[in-house]
Every structure is written in C-alpha cells, then in structure tokens.
Amino acid sequence: MTEGQAGVAAIAFEQVEKGFDDRKVLDKVSFTVAQGEALCILGRSGTGKSVTLKLMIGLLMADAGKVLVTGKDMSALDEHGLVKVRRKMGYLFQSAALFDSFTVNENLCMPLHRLDPNKSPEEIKRVVEETLGEVGLAKDGNKMPSALSGGMQKRAGLARALVLQPEILLVDEPASGLDRITASEIDALLMKVKTERHTTMVIVTHDINGARKIADKFAVLDQGRLLAFGTPQELDSRNDNRLQQFIAERC
Amino acid sequence: MLKSLFDSIGQVALFGAKAIRDAWVPPFEGEYLLMQFYEIGVGSFFLVVASGLALGVVMTLHTRSTLVQFGATAEIPVFQSLAFFNEIGPLVAALLMAGRVGAGIGAQLANMRATEQIDAIETLSVDSFKLLVVTRVIACTVMLPLLTMFMDAAGIFGGFLSEHIWSHLSWTLYMQRAFDGVALADFLPPTLKTAVFGYLIAVISCFYGYNTNEGSDGVRKAATNSVVVSSLVVILADVILVKCIFFLFPDQAI
C-alpha cells in the first residue's frame, strides 16, 4: 500500500535531528512509512536506529525537525495527546523488557486493565489467551519472565506489544541474542502480524536476511544520516559499494 | 560542589512535590498500591518486631544497671515506654525502613530503568511515575507509622520480658507502670512524624532509582545512595520535627 492510497502516512520524519551531549546521533533525517507498510531500518551499531524508534513513540523528543505519527507532531503533544497516539502503537524492545515481577499473563493484562477498563475480567483473560496462543506461548502464561528462554521472552514481549491491537508496531532488534532458527521463528511471527493484521511496522535490525523477508522498504542509516531509502529492489539496483555492505544477503 | 548539592535538593523536592500532586489524580493504581502495602508493610513486619523486641530487652538491661544504684527500678517500665514512644520506635523503625525498603526501591527501579522496563510501561500508555513512584510513596507514608506502633509494642514487650526474668514483675504491674503518666501527646505526635520519614525515604529512594541511567553500576549507586541519603535525611528531619513537636506541645519539652 502506498502513501497516496492510504492517505496520511503512518509515520513521517521531517529533517529530524537528535543529539546527546555534543554527539549528533541523527542529522536531518527524513522519510515516511505508509500505513500497512513494513520498513526495516539498517545500519551499523550506534548510528541512531534505536533512537529513531524511541523518537517515533515519544520516549525521546527530536532536537529539530518533526516526527509525525498518524499526522500528529509528537513534540507538540501534551501528556494526554501522547497517550492517545501511543495507544495506537506497540513496541517490542530488544531485551523484551518484560516486567520481571509479573507473570507473562500479568504482563499482558496490565495495559488491558488500564486502557480498556470496560473489558470484563473474562474478556481480558480471553484476549490474553488468544494473543499468547498467536505467539505460541499458550501454556506459558503463568510463568515468570525469568523462567523463559530468550526466544520465549521475545515472543512474550511481542504478545504484550500486540495485545492492544496496535496500528503501528515498532520492533527493536528482533533477532538479537537468538540463534538462527529462533530468529526465523520471530521473523515468521512478524510476517504473520503483517499479513493478517495489516499492521504498519518499523523494524530495526542487523539481520539482513530476516529484513528481506519482511520489509517493503529499507532505510539505511550511516553516521546519523539517511544513506538510502527505498524498496529492496530499488536499493539492490544501485551501484553503491557502501550501501551494498549493509543490504547484501549473507549466507 | 555547593551548587550541585542545591541542584540535587531542588530536583528531589520537585520530584517529591510531583508525587504529592499526582497522588490525587486518577487512575489511582489500587491493585499495585495494595502490592506495595504488602511488600513494604508486611515485608518489613518481622524485621521491625524482632528489632523492637531485642532493643527492648537490651534497653531495659542498660537502664536497670543504672537505676538500681538509685533504687529506682520501679521506673524502668515508664522509661522504656517513653523512650520507645518518643524516639527509639520512630527513629529505629525509620532507619530500618531506609535500609530494607529504601535499598529495595532504589535497586528495583534502577534495574527497571536499566532493562527498559520503565520505557516499556510508558510505551503501553501507562504513566510510569504514577505506577512506580506514587504508589511507593503512599505505601511508605502510610506503613511507617503502623510499623512504628508495632516497634513500640515489641520494645515494651521486650522490656517486660527482661524485667520479668530479672525481678519476676507481673504483666499487669509492668503495663500499669509503663503507661502511668504517659499522655496521648507522648505517643501520637512522634508516631505521626514517621509519616514524614516514610515520605522522605520513598521520595529519595524512588528519585535515585527512577532517574538512574547507568546500567548495572547505576543499580549499585541507586541502592547505596537511597540508603545513605534517606538515613541521613531522616535523622536531620527528626531534629527539626522534634523541635516542632516541642513547639506545638510545650509539655513534651519539660
């Protein structure tokens, strides 16, 4: 689906700049993600990929430029406005970031209880069971996060990100710390979310093989600047050695 | 150095003021608040009671060795109760809470920050400050006066055990002597001042835990700073509050 067909872009970066102390992490970065599209952000470590995700969900604010999510300027929103925009988004953290004093079920119940107070306990239980079933953790709801393997934690984190049926899913390094088989299982889950729910996705990854399976577009960041942006086919056809280092398939 | 100290005091004060303001704004996070009451109150109960009991026994042993020289051992129970109500109960309970709960809060919140759990709460459109800080501040403020009452009771009971073993003093006579001449003003203001101690311990510990950003070293620093700073602030606050109590209840100062 293109931006023109879908109307307002799900996410738009307009000349975004972000720095920490005296180090500029993002320098005049601009791109858009259309609704229902999957964008993979590639690049070396420390080039601002995770910062880009955090800007999208308002955990960080841009120093200059605009971050628009469903047409709303994140830096212009008050607390209430920010909550409304975040309500449309899910975020899978690199470490899964499950609440370690809660069971997996409680991790998923927490946002449902608070953001959907009209839901009955039975309804919440059903939604949690369904979502855990979707990620293959139907029997693990009563476990504590510490009792789960890395791959299972990622699945549980994904379930928590999906439990509110977000329009936009942000994923930080889904393959990080996982073996190739488990990483492909997570990729398959993301593919399923994309095709079945038509969720807009922005995925930060180093795993080019996984990215090629999921992405409609690539954004390549290098030293804080957007080196390239386009479909995998468009970028493959470019005769740019530096770019090819990032997007060439690996065995 | 002085500027950075005042800077930190200002930041903690604003953090504490925000906790008070947000405590009155819904949602009230009742379920999580109950968890904190349990964790902070019930979790500290045995430590406080055991410490109170031991202190009560030791205090009586020390007092007896002095008062026996003046033939005033009959005054031991009332010395014991006044000492516990006025100072030992409130201060020791607060210092125990600073050690157990303060370190726990500092370390837990710092760990949640380091492992992005606090960010995760924010991404779920839940106010992490209300959920993690406000609930702990309310729980500490409410639970410390209750724990102080248990410490007072345990201290007086410890005193009785010691006296009973030494002089076979009966429970009825001990209690009669312990509360003879003790007014409500001896008990209520010192116990209520611990609500301020509880608030200070929670605000300082939450401040260090919530605002850390240095990974596992941040967890260590947050836990250490929570205990050291909150213990120090409790002792300083005690001096000020005792002065205030003497001002409001002049009979106490005599």
Describe this structure in words.
The complex is a heterodimer of chains A (251) and B (254). Chain A has 251 residues and is an alpha/beta fold. Chain A has 2 domains: 1-88 and 167-251, Rossmann fold; 97-165, no CATH class. Chain A is 39% helix and 24% strand. Chain A has helices at 3-6, 49-57, 79-86, 104-115, 121-134, 150-162, 180-197, 208-214, 232-236, 241-247, and strands at residues 11-20, 23-33, 38-43, 64-69, 72-73, 89-92, 168-172, 200-204, 217-222, 225-230. In chain A, the strands form 2 sheets. Chain A has a 6-stranded mixed sheet, sandwiched between helices. In chain A, a hairpin with a 2-residue loop joins strand 4 and strand 5. In chain A, helix 4 (104-115) packs across helix 5 (121-134). The longest helix of chain A has 18 residues, at 180-197. Chain A starts with a helix and ends with a helix. By secondary structure, chain B is mostly helical. Chain B has one domain. Helices cover 87% and strands 0% of the residues of chain B. Chain B is elongated, with a radius of gyration of 21 Å. Chain B starts with a helix and ends with a helix.
Structural class of chain B: mainly alpha
Main sheet overview of chain B: none
Number of strands of chain A: 10
CATH superfamily of the largest domain in chain A: P-loop containing nucleotide triphosphate hydrolases
Give a brief outline of the structure.
Chain A is α/β, with parallel strands linked by helices and 251 residues long. Chain A has ten helices and ten strands. Chain B has one domain.
Strand and helix layout:
The complex is a heterodimer of chains A (about 250) and B (about 250).
Chain A: H1 3-6, E1 11-20, E2 23-33, E3 38-43, H2 49-57, E4 64-69, E5 72-73, H3 79-86, E6 89-92, H4 104-115, H5 121-134, H6 150-162, E7 168-172, H7 180-197, E8 200-204, H8 208-214, E9 217-222, E10 225-230, H9 232-236, H10 241-247
Parallel strand pairs in A: 3-8, 3-9, 6-7, 7-8
Antiparallel strand pairs in A: 1-2, 1-4, 4-5, 9-10
Helix pairs in contact in A: 4-5, 4-6, 5-6, 7-8
Chain B: H1 2-23, H2 30-67, H3 76-114, H4 117-123, H5 128-167, H6 171-179, H7 184-210, H8 215-248, H9 250-253
